[in-house]
Amino acid sequence: MNAIPAPDGGEAATIEMWFDFASPYSYLSLARLPQLARAAGVRVALRPFLLGPVFQAQGWSDTPFRLYPKKGAYIVRDVERLAEKHGVPYRWPSAFPRVGLLPSRVALLVEHEPWAPAFCLDIFRTNFVDDRDIQAEDTVRGVLRALSQDDEALVAQARSDVAKQALRRRVDEALQRGIFGAPTFMVGDEMFWGNDRLEDALAWAVRPGTRQPGSNQ
After folding, report:
1. Is 170 helix (H, G, I), strand (E, B) or coil?
2. Which one-letter DSSP state was computed for residue 185?
3. In the structure, what pLDDT confidence band is assigned to residue 11 with cuts at 50, 70 and 90?
4. Residues 30-38: what's their mean pLDDT?
5. What does the mean pLDDT of the chain come to?
6. Which of 69, 112, 192, 206 is deepest in the core (most CB within 10 A)?
């Protein structure tokens, strides 16, 4: 999301949103984020990454959704309630969690483009509304074409070794910064984990005295 002028005319405060396309809570957050960020005068920097390697680094052999069945059952219902509460279109996918390597690489390639939030939200909707395989090349190409983007070139780039290494580096960065789940919102070094902390992250970003990335204060 492009920078939004701050109320005093200066540079807008910034939060980073770290997300995985398999995460339903990430979908709920991104569906709500543009409107909330505009209202707060906050710039959002998208940070796609993968939860799988992060879970493995914590000693988990699988997603907590399957490792802890009772928690998994709770999450299914919790996401349904939250989607209804916020008016976000949603249905639990027939396959969960879905592999999202290809769209994650594309999202990383284009994360600074003005249309990147639309691409990411469309991928989430493809998974959590349309119940389609987001790893399928035809699916990703269709989302890109709908946004009037060069699907052939972008998918080819996403399949390159350069793109694969870039996503690995992004996962390494997540681990180095202590990120353990998605969505995670970072305001400088301040971490806010979970969809229910989105409003807190936005409020922290604009509080007096908050240090922004690159600030010398």
Report:
1. helix
2. E
3. low
4. 96
5. 91
6. 192
Residue at 210 is within a domain: no
Q: How many Cα atoms occupy the beta-carbon half-sphere of 69 within 13 Å?
A: 0
Residue 61 counted as domain residue: yes
Please report whether residue 6 resides in a domain. no
At residue 84, the 3 state secondary structure works out as helix
Task: Give CB contacts under 8 A, 24+ apart, made by 149-154.
Answer: 149/115, 149/119, 154/106, 154/109, 154/110
Residue 149 placed within a domain: yes
User: What's the pLDDT at 2?
Assistant: 43
**Is the backbone of residue 27 left (phi > 0), alpha (psi -120 to 50) or beta?**
alpha
**What is the distance of C-alpha 191 from the center of its chain?**
15
How many structural domains comprise the chain? 1
**For residue 60, what pLDDT band results from cuts at 50, 70 and 90?**
confident
Q: Which residues constitute the domain of residue 196?
A: 13-205
Q: What share of the chain is helix, strand, coil (3-state, %, to 5)?
A: 50, 10, 40
Looking at the DSSP bridge assignments, the partners of residue 47 are 18
Examine the pLDDT at 217 and tell me if it is beyond 50: no
CATH number at residue 116: 3.40.30.10
In this structure, are residues 198 and 35 in contact, taking their beta carbons and an 8 Å threshold? no
